[in-house]
Amino acid sequence: VQLVQSGAEVKKPGASVKVSCKASGYIFSSSGITWVRQAPGHGLEWMGWISTYNGNTNYAQRFQGRVTMTTDTSTNTAYLELGSLTSDDSALYYCARGKNNYGDSPCDHWGQGTLVTVSS
Amino acid sequence: DIVMTQSPDSLAVSLGERATINCKSSQSVLYSSHNKNYLAWYQQKPGQPPKLLIYWASTRESGVPDRFSGSGSGTDFTLTVSSLQAEDVAVYYCQQYYTVPNTFGQGTKLEIK
Predict the structure, then answer these.
(1) Three-point CA angle A100, B32, B72, nearest 5°
(2) What is the pLDDT along chain A (120 residues), one digit of tens a residue?
(3) CB-CB under 8 Å, B38 with A107
(4) Residue of chain B minimizing CA distance to A59
(5) What is the enclosing helix (H) or strand (E) of B37?
(6) Nearest CB neighbour to B103, from listed A46, A48, A58
(7) Strand pairing partners for B25?
(8) Rounded CA gap, A35 and A113, in Å?
(9) Among candidates A32, A37, A13, A11, which has minimal Cα distance to A109?
(10) Do B95 and A106 touch (CB under 8 A)?
């Protein structure tokens, strides 16, 4: 199992960022994808989850309205798009595979992380 | 949201000794009909993504050494490292996946004394 994320991004305040997470080594549609972020020197923050089976999503309330999670089953890739960026969004963004496709599961494999820096 | 509170924030233990980390949830994460606690523990070493150690509060993930164990139910949980090894130096997080958002504890930094 491998999750390979896209490279580091630098964005200006107010812009959007789109991070990709390409999965391999397992049946993509069998496990959901969770997105978690970690600000420098801080803990883990759960952002949301997407079913790779039917595209259902669950977002953390604090990101509602500016986050979109999608998948492309033809390329086994999940995407996280976050808009209206502020400096508080500067963080390492991780994708992670759930143990099932129902959302109520821990994450057993993680991507390497994508550093997003928001700076004017 | 369910608030996860870990204690202590940091812990220094001698090599070969036992380390115990606690995690308390603001409401029960026990799904009664399944008799399962929706609680996981992760280990994060510097510069690495988190690694799943324990899920369902006490089930060890494949490949995790048996010196790691999880216990507890309802709102109170414990991660125990029975005999600390040098490679166990890391930050440990608990997470509830009972309800959205699947919140994490603030982390406990485990060091060698």
Answers:
(1) 85
(2) 999 999 999 999 999 999 999 999 999 999 999 999 999 999 999 999 999 999 999 999 999 999 999 999 999 999 999 999 999 999 999 999 999 888 789 999 999 999 999 999
(3) no
(4) B101
(5) strand B36-37
(6) A46
(7) B4
(8) 10
(9) A32
(10) yes
